[in-house]
Amino acid sequence: xxxxxxxxxxxxAIKERATQQAVRLRGQGIVPxxxxxxxxxxxxxxxxxxxxxxxxxxxxIESRMIRMPADTTQDALLAELAQLAADDSVHGxxxxxxxxxxxxxxxxxxxxxxxxxxxxxxxxxxxxxxxxEECFLPCTPAGCIEMLKSTGxxxxxxxxxxxxxxxxxxxxxxxLLLREDATVTICHSRTEGLAQICAEADILVAAIGxxxxxxxxxxxxxxxxxxxxxxxxxxxxxxxxxxxxxASEKAAAITPVPGGVGLxxxxxxxxxxxxxxxxxxxxxx
Length: 285
Ligand code: GUN
Description:
binds guanine, six-stranded parallel beta sheet, three-stranded parallel beta sheet
C-alpha cells in the first residue's frame, strides 16, 4: 500500500508558520491583507472564496472580500482593481476564476500589479518563474512540489509526467518540476499513447479534470502520484483524476482527494500573502 501524502498535516504546518509570521508583522505595525474579488455566483467559486476568508482569519491575515454581481462590466472590475492596486494597506490581490463571459480574463489578470499578484498569474510572475527569479509561484503547483518534497523521495533526474496543460496548473507544474531537475513530459487531450507515457512516470501529476481518468494500469510501480483533480463521480462523491483504490496498490506515495492538493493550494496562498506584505513593506519575519 502506498504512503498517503496528507494535505491536512502538511497544510496545518504551513498555516502554523504563516500565523507566527503574521504575529511578527503585526508587531511591526503591519497587518497583512489579502483582497479577494468574486464576480457572480458560481457555487464552486463561492465555496473556494469562503475557504480563503476562513484561512486568513485563522492565521491573522486580514481579508477583504469584494463580491460583485454576475453582470459586472469589465470596466467596473478594472476600476475596483485600480483602487486595490493603489491601496498600500492591501498586499495581495486575487480575482477568483472563472469570470463571467463578458469579461476578458487576461485583461483583468494583467491589471493586477505583479507585486500584489499572490496567485502568480500575471505575465511578469509567470516569466520570472520560467527564469528562476524571485516571484510569486502559483499556489496549486507550488503545493504539489511541497507534497512531493515531503515524501523525501528524489525528484532530480526522475521522469515526471504532468497530465494537463492549463495556465493555472499543468504548465506551471511542469516548469516547477523542471526547476527541481526532473525530466518532464506534458500530456494533454491530443497526446498519442498517453497511457503508456504515464505508465513510465516516476512522478505523475494529474490535472486533467476528469474523474478516475488515471487507472491502475497507468501507474508505474513505486511512482509518486499527485492528484490535482476535484471532480464529482456519478454518485456525486468528491473524487480526483486518479482511481485512488487502484493507484494506491501500485504507487509508493499518493495524495488523497479530498484532503490533498486542495488544502495545499489554500495554504500556499497564505504563504504568498505574507511574502507580499514582507516585500512591500521591507518588514522582517
Ligand atoms: N479558480 C480555480 N483555481 C483558482 C486559483 O488558484 N486562483 C484563482 N484566482 N481562481 C481559481
